[in-house]
Amino acid sequence: MTTTLLRTAAELHARARAGRRAVVMTMGALHEGHATLIRTARGIAGPDGEVVVTVFVNPLQFGKGEDLDRYPRTLDADIELAGQSGADVVFAPSVDEVYPGGEPEVRITAGPMGERLEGSSRPGHFDGMLTVVAKLLHLTRPDVALYGQKDAQQLALIRRMVRDLNFGVEIVGVPTVREEDGLALSSRNRYLSAAERRTALSLSGALFAGQDRHAAQEALRARAREVPATRARAEALSAIGESRAAADTHAVATAVPGGPAAVRAAARQVLDEAARLDPPLALDYLALVDPSDFTEIGDDFTGDAVLAVAARVGATRLIDNIPLTFGSFGAAS
Fold it and tell me: Which residues belong to the active site?
């Protein structure tokens, strides 16, 4: 389809609107993860609606020593991929269009949630992110805006901002897209050498190890609920020659699953091994948190959680996460 490049909000506002407008916000260097967001937006907007993809490298999100100047800028390729994925418009404003008069004196603060994990590692990052998201929501005036779940803390903060400050927009999270080897798609992956990429696979490897441990624990819980934990049951099984089954039944019924601590330990083991690779993985954090506020969960926690990791491989910093649900009969999808 034909995709229109617009540079100013006035041009965007002048477009006739019939159906819903769905917006996908990006910093460019689009890849299949972004394409999935755009295709999802196309489905939400429908044939009569409009999909707008923003491309803006936000200087407020980059701290001292981070890769603002190095961040890839590939607008022509971005327009092509956006159009192939179903976008009607690519909105690529200049810094002056987004921040007339220079950096804004008044900004949105992310609050305590924005000081944890990514916020602790990158002070001020989430204030800059929320400020530009708020401005782009005003500039693009969407009915719905879509964000990837790979940036789980970002998504949680955007949802909180929209709710707390009464933005009239629906926020949709789209699951993380991974490459065949499990590495989460990221514009920063292109910085990795072949050796660094092999080490980087430890991020998703750690998450999958934690997920596997979690699934085993939840299956154990489910079996424990179904099997009576009585001596009579074990004796009855033994009496008919099923002593091994009896032992297993008793073990399952009386076992106490490791819970969040075991999930953390399984993931940590993979990361500890990655720290000894060449090149090594330098862990920033591994956290198992409540997605409502990104605080660490306790061993008695039930409900939805996020297992998140951030690390550096060489000069490249990467993040990843997976959702888990504790107290259910299986791992989250």
Answer: 34
